[in-house]
Amino acid sequence: MNLAVANALVAGVTKRAIGVKVLDGVTAEQQFVKLIYDELVELMGGEGSSALAGGDRGVDGRPQVVLMAGLQGAGKTTSAGKLALTIVTDPKTGEPTGRGCVLAAADVYRPAAIAQLQTLGAQVDVPVFRLVAVFG
Known about the structure:
two-stranded parallel ribbon; globular
């Protein structure tokens, strides 16, 4: 994450958290996670953004880009495959949506992660873009 983005996230969460009382029925940790979630949503374009509404195009007319970021083993690759399936196939009817999707393998240092993404892409019939890292 870019340092400026991280600083904006921390500042936004700090601003939201100051003076907030813990709600009945939730722990302070749960409420703090919600504050972080709300700030991340705002940082990514807010509740009304077309990415959250499922639109193909952003406000500027360019294709939507979804970045999956997290720790190794957190389920990013599997979630990306499920998200791709949801984009190209209506979950209720199983019919094609007519929307396009491409998965991009960005973890060039873990070939197994790239192979897993290629397998998932083949299962949901979505192309996978990958770069091959050259070492040495």
